[in-house]
Amino acid sequence: MKKFLLILLTVISLLFLCSCKNSSTVSPVATNKSTSSTFSIQFIDVGQGDSALVECDGHYMLIDGGDKLHGNKVYSVLEDKGIQHLDILAISHLHEDHIGVLIKALTYATKIDKVIANTDYRNNATFRELENELGTNEAQISIPSTGEKFKLGSAEVEVADVAAVDDNDALVLMITYGQTRFLFTGDIEYDAQKRLYERYNSITKDDEPYKIDLIKMPHHGSYEGSLYALMRTFMPDYAVISVGEGNQYGHPHKETLNMLDDPKSDYHPKVYRTDKDGDITVKSDGKELTFKTSK
C-alpha cells in the first residue's frame, strides 16, 4: 500500500511540474504582441508650412496641416490611408501655414477624440473657420499644460512647452515610442527655445544631453541665437526641416545649415528637407529609425 501511495505521489508531482512548464510558455505569446506594434511619422510636403501624421498601433495624430493651397495634399494622405478617425489633432499655433489646410482635411477625418492647441484666440479668421468645422465633428479645442501627457497607442505624447505670448510661440510636443524620442517645435523662436532647453537641461545630470532621435526644426529652419543651445541639449541624430522650395523668407537660413554641418563640430545630424525630399516617412521599431522619401 505504501509503495502504491509513493508511486501515486510521484505521478502527481510529475503532472504538476509538466503543467507549470506548459503554463510558462504563455508569456512569450504575450511578448510577441509587441512585435506587431507599429510607429511611423509622415512629414507631409505642404510647401512653406508644417504638417505631420503620426501613427502608433493603428491610432493617429495629425500635427498641423499647412496652408489652404495644400488642402488637397493632406486630405489625400488621409483618404489614401482611409483615416477618418483621429485620436489627437494638435495645432501648434494659429498661423495660416499651419492650420489653413485643416478645414479641408477635416471634411474627411470626421471623428476626432481630442483637439489640443497653444491658444483659442477667436479673433483669427482661419481659426473661426476651423472651429466651425470642428463643431460639425463635435470636437472642442483645449489648451493643455506643460508636462501634460497623452497616450497614442503604445506611444506617449508629452506637452514640452505651450505658450501664446510671442507671435511664434507654439504647442511643443515630445513623442516617446520605446526608446526613441521625437520633438515637434512648431515655429518657436528665442524665448520659447530657451524655456525648452532650460527645462530639459534641469532633468538631466552632469550636463548630459536629454538625447532624442529626431527634431522637427523650429520655424522652417529659421536661425535664432538660442538654436545652438537647443540642439546641444537634445543632440538629435536626425533633423527634419519643413520648408517650401524657393520661399521668400530665405528658409532654411544659411546659419542654421552651417550649424548643422559645421566641419569643425563633432556633431552632424542627418538633415531631411521637404523641399528637396518631398514627403519624409520615418518608422521606429522602438530602438532604431528607418527613413523613406518621396523624391
Provide a brief overview of the structure.
This protein is of the alpha/beta class and 295 residues long. It is 31% helix and 26% strand.
Structure, described:
The chain is α/β, with parallel strands linked by helices and 295 residues long. Helices cover 31% and strands 26% of the residues. The chain has helices at 2-23, 26-32, 71-81, 96-99, 102-105, 125-136, 190-201, 227-234, 254-260, 274-277; strands spanning 39-43, 52-56, 59-63, 85-91, 111-117, 141-142, 149-152, 155-162, 171-177, 180-184, 214-216, 238-241, 270-273, 280-284, 289-293. The strands form 2 sheets. It has an 8-stranded mixed β-sheet with strand order 6-5-4-3-2-1-14-15, with no helix packed on it. A 7-stranded mixed β-sheet has the order 7-8-9-10-11-12-13. Helix 7 packs parallel to helix 8 (227-234). The longest helix is centred in the N-terminal third of the chain and has 22 residues, at 2-23. The protein is globular. 41% of the residues are buried. Residues 1-9 and 14-33 have low confidence and may be disordered.
